[in-house]
Amino acid sequence: FAALHAAVPGLPLASSTVLPGVVLSRDFTAYCPAEGELRAVLVTEPLRPALTAPGVEFVVDSEGQYQASLRWITRRTEALVKHLQSNNVKLLLSSTKQDEVVIYYAKLYGISVVECLLSEEMALISEITGVSPYAPFGDNMYREITETAVASFCQPLLLGSKRCVHIGFTSVCAFQPHCLILCGPVDAVNEQHAAALQEAFIMLQQLFDQTVDQ
């Protein structure tokens, strides 16, 4: 319930509504409008490769070597983002903040980016779509990307003064997500309404479970 409702203070209760899909409590870091069905990948690690592995010391003998290493990282980052594009990926959903060079190439190759998603949001998307986070730095970085989720739309959404991301994922199960937009004059009222609705949903769930058991 926490990931499938959003509270909007400062609006009358009558403005409350139900939206199909998922509303993420983040704004786009990069937004590249795309028409029709689009593919998305989930990532939980930076896409800009590190100079060295954790626990390994990186030693350079000159400023020239260091700059050459940075150029290699930039080229590899571009190649990875271009590989995403060649696999028809139009949306990058990340639980971590990505480097500026990743955002630059994402904009260049027409890929929207949403960063710093909560673990609950990532888990919900995985449950809806059936995909796991994409791990780019395995044995073969250029293998076909199969861990892609499908969305029918992806667009900005303004809730009061807060900019959010509204995505309509294609569900792989019977669960078809909808997000409850709760409006009220102040946060305290919204919190009361949200708590009451959550208790009502729990009661209905228990009632249906008992009916099935009987």
Automatic annotation (TrEMBL):
It comes from Piprites chloris. InterPro entries: BBS10, GroEL-like_apical_dom_sf, TCP-1-like_intermed_sf. SUPFAM superfamilies: GroEL apical domain-like (SSF52029). One of its GO terms (molecular function) is ATP binding. It comes from the Eukaryota. This is BBS10 protein. Signal peptide: none annotated. GO terms for biological process: chaperone-mediated protein complex assembly.
